[in-house]
Amino acid sequence: LQHSNYLHMKRPYLLIMTATLCLVLSGGMSLAKDSSVPRTNSAEDKETLEACKQAAIKNPDDANTHFNLGIAYLKSGMYKEAIESLKQATKINPDDTKTHKTLGYVYMNLYMYEEAIGALKVVIKRDPDYAMSYYNLGFVYNVSNDKDSALEQYKILKSLDPELADKMFKLINK
Q1: From CA 63, how far away is CA 39, in angstroms rounded?
Q2: What's the 3-state SS for 20-32?
Q3: Which DSSP state fits 127?
Q4: pTM of the complete model
Q5: What are the two backbone dihedrals, phi and then psi, of residue 81, each rounded to the nearest 5 degrees?
Q6: CA-CA-CA-CA torsion sign (112, 29, 88, 127)
Q7: What pLDDT, on a 0 to 100 scale, did the predictor assign at position 174?
Q8: Where does residue 70 rank: exposed (0-12), middle (13-18), buried (19+ CB within 10 A)?
Q9: Distance of CA 46 to the CA centre of its chain
Q10: CA angle 146, 112, 27 (to 5 degrees)
Q11: Which class for 159: exposed (0-12), middle (13-18), buried (19 or more C-beta within 10 A)?
Q12: For residue 109, what pLDDT is reported?
């Protein structure tokens, strides 16, 4: 009986610690700023993933918790699960640009170009000055053999980030 009461009293503390562990070990809210997220399978990553799963169970209506779970899945190479967690985060908070950026990144890397285009268009609508989204969208159009749409992104990109636009131009004209 005493042991049962002890566990009951510790639950809120464990929830706080689980959520904190998830945030700390997953690197908080960042994805490695438009570059690749290294895939690892360390014991620490497994602990992070488990902590994030528990946090999502305890906080099913918290978009950041689902975002962090998506990142943990992504780092573990579990892309389908990452997409599902990130989609859940966008359902809870459809205005969260970082989640749409991350979804676009995942879709691009899985060659899911239609989905990537959709996610990147949402990012551009919400953050029209974020140059990397135009570059990524142009890249997806280019690899999808839609050179005209890629060139449209290049034209927009010229005024936002001339260096990135030059990279886009070289990519289109390869």
Answers
A1: 23
A2: HHHHHHCCCCCCC
A3: -
A4: 0.73
A5: -65, -35
A6: negative
A7: 86
A8: buried
A9: 18
A10: 120
A11: exposed
A12: 87
In the prediction, which pLDDT does 111 show?
A: 92
Tokens of 86: 């990130």
For residue 41, which phi and psi values (nearest 5 degrees)?
A: -135, 40
Token pair for residue 119?
A: 């996610």
Q: How many helices (H) and strands (E) does the chain have?
A: 9, 0
pLDDT, mean over the chain: 81
Q: How far apart are CA 48 and CA 9, in angstroms?
A: 24
Written as one letter, the residue type at 48 is T
pLDDT in tens, 115-165: 999 999 999 999 999 999 999 999 999 999 999 999 999 999 999 999 999
Comparing CA positions, the residue from 143, 134, 73 lying closest to residue 108 is 143
Number of neighbours of residue 156 by Cβ within 10 angstroms: 20
Q: Scanning the structure block, which residue is given the tokens 């464990």?
A: 14
Report, as ranges of residue numbers, the positions in the chain whose pLDDT lies below 50. Answer: 1-38
Rounded to 5°, the CA angle 44-110-84 comes to 60
170 is written with which tokens?
Answer: 């070289």
* CA dihedral over 143, 146, 147, 152, signed as positive or negative: negative
